[in-house]
Design goal:
Layout: H1 2-15, E1 18-27, E2 31-39, E3 47-55, E4 59-68, E5 74-81, E6 84-89, E7 92-97, E8 102-105, E9 115-123, E10 126-131
Antiparallel strand pairs: 1-2, 2-3, 3-4, 5-6, 5-9, 6-7, 7-8, 9-10
């Protein structure tokens, strides 16, 4: 009996995990930026965030962004030049270059982050990428597992 209770509790803990990807498709699914918000456990406050930079077939890399204790996730995306994207998560700033899949953080906010492309955020109860014009992207149905 104790074994069944333990298995039931373990199953509940595993099922409480949540991973929600949202993709900004730049050139179809071949070139994209994906932000995943992850809740590893039901008791975790806020979200873990990962950035997946993809420029197929040259590279695909995953980078960890700073954990947020907020229940509302928003990551703004700017583009100062072709293939380079600057992301703002609250007071934190990141840059990714899709030509090389490079990634780095800014110590200070960039003075001119570039043209606003949109934001990763929850809209209508779904974590998605919302373009600057307010249009939400379609869910990425051919997302690959890493």
């Amino acid at each position: 009996m104790k074994r069944w209770i333990l298995l039931l509790v373990m199953a509940m803990l595993v099922s409480a995990c949540s991973k929600e990807p949202a993709a900004y498709l730049i050139a179809g699914s071949q070139v994209s930026i994906t932000v995943e918000r992850i809740k590893p456990n039901f008791w975790t406050k806020g979200w873990d965030l990962d950035l997946v930079a993809r420029q197929h077939p040259n590279c695909q890399r995953r980078y960890h962004l700073k954990h947020t204790n907020s229940t509302k996730v928003r990551v703004d995306v700017y583009s100062p030049q072709r293939g380079v994207f600057i992301l703002r998560q609250g007071k934190r700033w990141y840059v990714t270059d899709l030509r090389t899949c490079a990634f780095d953080t800014f110590a200070d906010p960039p003075p001119a982050p570039g043209e606003p492309m949109g934001s990763f955020m929850e809209k209508g109860g779904v974590f998605t990428f919302v373009e600057s014009g307010g249009r939400a992207s379609a869910p990425d149905t051919d997302a690959e597992a890493d």
